[in-house]
Amino acid sequence: MAEAPAGDAVTSLGPILLFSAFVVATCGLVYELLAGTLASYLLGDSVTQFSTVIGTYLFAMGMGAWLSRGVKRNELAVFIRVEILIAAVGGGSAALLFLLFDRVADFRLPLYGLVLLIGTLVGLEVPLLMRLLKDRLEFGDLVSKVLTFDYIGALAASLLFPLVLVPQLGLIRTGFLFGLANVAVALGLLLMLPARARLRGELAAGIIVAAALVAGFFGAERLQKLAEVAAYQAPVIYAASTPYQRIVLTKAGDDLRLYLNGNMQFSSRDEYRYHEALVHPALGRVARPAHVLVLGGGDGLALREILKHPGVEAITLVDLDPAMTRLFGRSAMLTPLNQGALTDRRVHVVNADAFVWLRANRRQYDAVVVDFPDPTNFSVGKLYTLSLYRELARAIAPDGIAVVQSTSPLVAPRAYWTVAATLEAAGLVTRAYHANVPSFGEWGFILAAHRPIGDAVRLPPGLRFLTAHTQAAMYDFPTDMARRPVEVNRLDNQVLVRAFDAEWSRFEG
Amino acid sequence: MVAVRGVTGFDLDRRGVMIGAGALALAGCAEGAIPGTLAGADMARGHLLRTPFGDAAPAETRRTGIAILGGGIAGLAAAWTLAEAGYRDFRLLELEDRSGGNARSGRNAISAYPLGAHYLPVPNAEAVGVRHLLDRLGIITGWQGGKPVFDPYQLVSDPDERLLRLGRWQEGLVPSVALAKGDRAQIDGFFAAMAAFRDMKGRDGRPAFAIPMELSARDPELLALDGQSWTAWLDAHGYTCADLRAHIRYVCRDEYGTEPGDVSAWTGVHYFAGRRGDAAGDGDAVLSWPGGNGHLAEAMAARVAGHIDTGHVVGAVNATGAGVVIDALDARSRRRVRIIADAAVVANASVDRLPAGPGAALAWDNVSATSNSLGYVVATHQGLASVGGPSVLTWYLPLSELPPAKARALLQARPLADWQRIVHDDLVMMNPDLAGAISRIDVWRWGHAMVRPVPGFMWGSQRQAAARFVPPLFAAHSDLSGVSIFEEAHYRGTLAAEAAMRHAGFAHHSLLAA
């Protein structure tokens, strides 16, 4: 580090130091707002999050102010160092917290650690500034001016943050931008020092931090992708990694959404459309659906619909992830959605891999509801192969029926009809239909049975979507979704995953 | 020490035992940071072969109609053939503690995994014996229009192969992306030429390149390819592009454990032109199991379980007027150095999570264009679980760049920790996401992994003389085919067993008859 600058150099910096007070105050408040917003976004319960973040932050500022007494000389050099540090830590805080969210056991640890660190550094700023200006201004004037700029800066931040920054730049970019403002103060001061008093080490550090912040600002999009939670449209109210998948719940108003590995599974606004369309065309065709099998569907929403049929005596639900069935079986926020179906005495939950379970199964069921995730990868793709459908065929009673959720016939017609062709190759008779689920789009299902599938369907009372009339219209396929020739999906060719990927990536651009 | 003196035996697998087909599992000790064991080819057991058994009277004398020496695939196929024919009076003497030879498998808490051979392509129509075996084992589930239907659970699931090249994974092992125009034309030209060889028939009506190789056409211009090295043939035909040659080198090291310059052009073409997989579905498919071909070896061994004597070292085989006298002991033996031999290392790395990487998704067989290893196969690939958990990656490295003697010396000298570091670094180089996920590396050394089909070996007099039966001794080993693959070992074993039964006057139906 270079020698401390001479006193007269400091005196000449008066106006820029006062302007720094404004910048520093704006940045300080922005970091506080970033932490508060992030905490309520990722952890939910915004009142608690904002209160605790603000409290911690103010307390840390107090610590910073107290620590400032330990600075005996070289106030300008220390101030510049503090600015560079705040630029690095505060500027990168949003990006860092997003990246850490799903990688640490307890998110609150890094969150409050960062809040304490930034608060302490910010707390150092104003006392140092005042001491730097003490020889230039009379005490009353000094306090008045510094605090005026400080509070104006705070107002600027609190207005800019919700109105401009978050909507235009997003949280990660906002952080980097204000980090740049902090480092600009440091660099500005450094450049205005007379050449003999230059602090070379500080200058180098400042330039490196500035470069990193610029890179971060422009690379924010990639960072955002790395930080999956930043991709959700609404505040995350629950997130957990199980050995099998990542479960995320978001909530905006009355719209509760479930994401598995980043793929939306339902939106509480229109899931009834999906689940009524999934369950009733199949169950309504069985004279007495006493024994029902559900593969997948750990959210219990399909169960809720199945239980509306009076003849149902026993339902076996096979879902891979115990964390899913536990969450949807117990959480007070979620059980109203599935009406406690997972804990119904007629429901037997098995946590197993559906393919392995089905291969070992020797029972037959009157109705089978197959509600697997979309075939986005080769592992899930196995659940849509000829081999699985042969096992499925064994599990369907002679007069029974199965239904398979099979992606969108509009977006991915080849993938959709591959499911039908594969079910048929397993010796089953199929019947295809589709329904509109706004949050998914036009969605497709396929019925499969040992005998021809007729038109007659008995719908239970109390449905919100299906009527006899709408139900009957679901079997009509317009030209753009019409059946086309496709290959059978086998374990050793996995044509479905390839078709699905090609069609959806074209759709999503 | 127990000596077994069998009278009226037949040496079915002379080379396999006299020269040693197998390797001894030595329980290694865990060293270094990564847990694991070092096992494989050990020369200690064979030291006993150096000292004659002496004149001491054998502790025990057993009589048997047919003795099979060596329990690799050839020996097991011979035993299976005898059992199928209803011939009961036979013993199989195996040097190792477990039969299976190169096709043995290992197992840990996560999965079974291969120690050597790890797959069997859908066999050609002419591989009658193998098809019979697969039918009996239920791997062929039925027949449609004369073509076998294979159990889909035992065919390798898609995606089957991927190659790491230019920093990205691509599907398939032949370089297919970011190729110069001329290179692409050369690669296409090469595969078209190989397809022409594949469809070619000799003047005798046989396929130009058959599996088993013994059934190939004998046209002199085809056999002449055996006199030339594969490299020389490729150069002469202008197949010089680096990406193509890298692929061909990979294939040679994978299939023959050797460099393209050390195999004959006939053998080189045979790899690309010999396969005409015959199936009701996809004939290019491959069969595999978590334990690799250990699955087949175990199924064959189970059929003849009561006839196998493991841990028996055959010291002397003497044909007498009455038959054959075999001196064997159950202690440790030493292999004699092979004339044609190579060395390889197979490592099994237990991983907490499956690797991914940019580009094509994880496949069964994963190869890097820049690594000297043959890449890795995923033992749990055939599992049905839809979510990847811990797995075992089987990693292969042929020591093809060293002369055989040096390679074997290196095998003996290099400590476990060094092998583990090599395996670890290679895996992490291919898949940086595996860093920290490798919990254990078990290393298996093969002093002799595969026969090395040097120019002139396939159709030269030496191999053909060795393959000739000299009753009452009937040699059977995949080395007699010059190619160390399951179908060849199986063919040799079956052929020898049937010749032995004919010699013994035992009526049977041939498993090799179409």
How would you portray this structure in words?
- The complex is a heterodimer of chains A (509) and B (514).
- With 509 residues, chain A is an alpha/beta fold.
- Helices cover 54% and strands 15% of the residues of chain A.
- Chain A contains 18 helices and eleven strands.
- In chain A, the strands form two sheets. Chain A has a seven-stranded mixed β-sheet, with helices on both faces.
- The longest helix of chain A is centred in the N-terminal third of the chain and has 54 residues, at 139-192.
- The radius of gyration of chain A is 31 Å and the shape is elongated.
- In chain A, 49% of the residues are buried.
- Chain B has 514 residues and is of the alpha/beta class.
- Helices cover 28% and strands 18% of the residues of chain B.
- Chain B has 14 helices and 21 strands.
- Chain B has helices spanning 14-20, 47-50, 73-84, 128-136, 181-199, 220-223, 230-236, 242-256, 265-273, 294-303, 404-413, 416-430, 461-467, 486-503; strands spanning 3-7, 38-40, 60-63, 66-69, 90-93, 105-107, 112-114, 120-121, 140-144, 147-150, 161-165, 168-171, 286-287, 308-309, 313-319, 324-329, 344-351, 365-368, 376-378, 391-398, 438-446.
- In chain B, helix 3 (73-84) crosses helix 14, helix 5 packs across helix 9 and helix 7 packs across helix 9 (265-273).
- Chain B is globular, with a radius of gyration of 22 Å.
- Chain B starts with a strand and ends in an 11-residue tail after the last helix.
- Residues 1-32 and 331-341 of chain B have low confidence and may be disordered.
- At the A-B interface, helix 13 and helix 14 of A face loops of B.
